[in-house]
Amino acid sequence: MSCRYTDAKKAFIDEVKTDEYIELEGSRRAFLQLTHSLRKSTKMVLIYGEPGTGKTLLLHRLYEKYREQMEIHLLDIPSGTRQEFYRKLFRIFTGKEMPPRTKVDFETFVAFARRIKGKRNIVVLLDEAQMYPKEMLEEIRVLSDTGSIKFVIALHKTEDEDLVAKKHFQSRIWETIELRNATPLELNAYIHKHLLHHGHNELASLFKDRHIKLIHRWTAGNFRECNKILYTLFEIYEHYDKHDPQKIDYNKISIKHLEMAAIKTGFIHV
Amino acid sequence: MYDIEELEEKWRRYRRKKLLRLFLWALLIVLLLALPLFYVEVYSEKEKTAVKKSRYASIGSEESISKQEVNVSRGQINEKLQKHTKASPLLQAVPPSMKEKKYSQVKSKRPKMQITFTDESHHVEDSTKKEGAVELSMVKRNDAAVIRSIEKRFPLSHNYDDAMYLAKYYYSKHRYKKAEYWAMQANVVDSTKAESWMLFAKAKAKGGHRTEAIRILQRYYDNTGDSQVKLLIDAMRKGRKF
Fold first, then answer.
1. Does any CB of chain B come closer than 8 Å to the CB of residue A242?
2. For a 10 Å CB count at each end of chain B, is N or C smaller?
């Protein structure tokens, strides 16, 4: 009993784990749409949504699913410089690391992409695309125009830079997928499935509609924010369990403790 | 977790704020619900007070009768009465200096008061068909519409005749409370006319307040010396028909 909160807490650490992926209606639909668009001759696919709606996880899942079946590459960390981006492109095109002190210009990549058209079908998954400089976005656009390389771009919906990027790619985007925050029902499924996935059936059964409603009200259904609250909640329970067990009822989730978690994570301002 | 106590303290503060907020909302809702009721209550209270005030000002209060409302000296009233006697056939039936004559003389010429209805007009007309008989001819249009329309126009017109018409109408229908009310309204318009005093007192007496009716008439008689009033007082005192 004493370690169940510690384990439950770990279940809500915010990290991308495709093996712990929770299938929800919204994300299932987005995944199917994305899979379908990969088979089409589209040049670019845009995935957008607020931070914490599961864009990165969606790209990771896609990558994990198709990495053995097709030539798919995931660039999850944005390249800060052009050279770094070229290095990644070199590895994508040749399958080898670019030799040190070697310089390749962009025209070479374009020429190479044109040469492999019809022979290879490369898919590049680009996460956090709003962080790429404008020039690099321009080069991505030119590369996608060759028709031999397809970019799946994930963007934040709410920040200014996404507007720039979105506008930049607008004429080339053939498919758009929007990821939204979860509904209370989806959030309920997310929390329950997450706990069940980690073997906390008993804890999962303690989450009632009133708890879900509160969490949804504070987080607006954002998965990342929900993870934060639940992590903190179980951290509080873990503390009481170790130091002050009379303060907790093991048979229910207290609203007080949930509110304390929301205070701690900044969802409630005192 | 090292800051659990601080967190608990923050939660307690949050709880207090939440409860206070809830309390304030509840209070606001209660106030919003109670406000219209309070307003209605105050409004009706004001109306009641206004009606009471006007009643006391005109008839109810003895002091106001003697000092303020009547405010007409005996001489002035006698003067007015003399004028009216010339003009009104009703009053011609009663000798003007009735007060100076002995009461027994007055008694022998006691006029009869009748309330009759005609279909001609709806204005109150006083007429004397034969000596000593007072006939009040009133309109009858067979429907309550006339009464309603007169009642409706009265707040604007404040016409003495209208109020008296209504008072007589209700008196004839044995609705003495209403008769009282309209006689009082007529009295508010013109407190010098004995007719409204008499009708008010008659309605009052018929309504079971004979003593009060006599007291009011007596007070008026003391101020004006009106012979008809005296006759009515006697009739009331001796339990005769009036």
1. no
2. N
Token pair, residue A157, equals 């919906």
Q: Which domains are delineated in chain A?
A: 4-19+182-264 (no CATH), 25-179 (3.40.50.300)
Q: Does A210 touch chain B (CB under 8 A)?
A: no
CATH of B71-237, one of 3.90.70.10, 3.40.50.2000, 1.25.40.10, 2.20.28.10: 1.25.40.10
DSSP B23-82: HHHHHHHHHHHHHHHHHHHHHHHHHHHHHHHHHIIIII-HHIIIIISS---HHHHHHHHH
ipTM above 0.90, yes or no: no
CA–CA distance, A37 with A59 (Å, rounded to integer): 13
Average pLDDT, chain B: 73
Residues in chain A closer than 8 A to B8 (CB atoms): 260
Q: Which A residues, 143 through 162, put their C-beta within 8 Å of a C-beta on chain B?
A: none
